[in-house]
Amino acid sequence: MLQPVSFLPLHQAHDPRALMARWRLLARAAGLQVRTLVTMEGEPVLCLQSRRAKPAPLVYLSAGVHGDEVGAAWGLLFWAEKHLEKLRAERFLIFPCLNPHGLRANTRLDQRGLDINRRFHLPEDPLSGPWSRLIAENPPALGLCLH
Asked: What is the 3 state secondary structure string of the chain?
């Protein structure tokens, strides 16, 4: 059984690989499918999805849009670790860290020097385009974007 960790070693706060390693463990424990939405300059942007079929309402959770807001990315993980049964029983679409470069660099900006929070309306954007298509295919009943 996955044991939640109630602390974060300070040296890992801005380490997207450490964050994603924990999410991969959680995904196995909760029966979530892990996919790479896109790879931005060698950095995968992961998406976790429930294997539960429709028609259950979909809950969308995301964090890590701004890399200087590490509390949201790690807080979402801590919440998920404590709610494995909910993740198993209900239908979720989770983006644990939409901006891994920003997390590593402690900045709002991605590797292109852009604030992705200002680009979600652009279908040609290499991140927000695939993101918006996935959302259109899986419309959520509830969405929480943690900052």
From this structure: CCCCCCCCCHHHCCCHHHHHHHHHHHHHHHCEEEEEEEEECCEEEEEEEECCCCCCCEEEEECCCCCCCHHHHHHHHHHHHHCHHHHHHCEEEEECCCCHHHHHHCCCCCCCCCCHHHCCCCCCCCCHHHHHHHHHHCCCCEEEECC
Structure tokens at 37: 């939405």
Distance CA 114, CA 79 (A): 29
In one-letter notation, the amino acid at residue 67 is G
Q: In this predicted model, what pLDDT tens digit does every residue of 28-85 receive, in sequence order? A: 999 999 999 999 989 999 999 998 776 789 999 999 999 999 999 999 999 999 999 9
pTM score of the predicted model: 0.91
* Residue 76 CA: distances (Å) to CA of 60, 61, 94, 129: 12, 8, 9, 24
Q: Interior CA angle at 13 toward 46 and 66, to 5°? A: 55
Answer yes or no: are the C-beta atoms of 141 and 52 closer than 8 Å.
Answer: no
